Amino acid sequence: MGKQDFEARRDALLQDIRSMMDDVQELYDNSVEEGTKEAKEAKAKLQVKLDAAKEKLGRFEEEAAKRVKYHAGQAKERFAEFGEEAGERFKRGKECFDRFEEEAAERVKHRARQADEAVREKPYYAMGFAALAGLVVGVLLNRR
Length: 144
Description:
Blueprint (H helix, E strand, L loop, with lengths): L2 H28 L6 H85 L1 H20 L2
């Protein structure tokens, strides 16, 4: 059942209810003469329209309940799919982060070993570079 069909049926049901209310008004207006033929005809006409409206309303409610149930099921399935996909992406992201962490740790260790070797091979260069770096930092801090 499409949206347009749903709206058309809703409009038809509302039209039936309006018609029934007109008939109720007519019955009320004719109720002064309770036993009149017009009142009995209006009452019978009203009963037929009321039964038809009840039937349409019942079908409408059933179809609306089916639609709600269907869409709720669809939403539940999509939520489950989303949960699974999110779990997979989180797992992959965690694995990537773990690999990155391992690679970064290896690189830092490698560079630290290289620096240690350089300092052991040429200690005077290392002391000179440290002194130069300290001088530059001192100058920059004193400029403030």
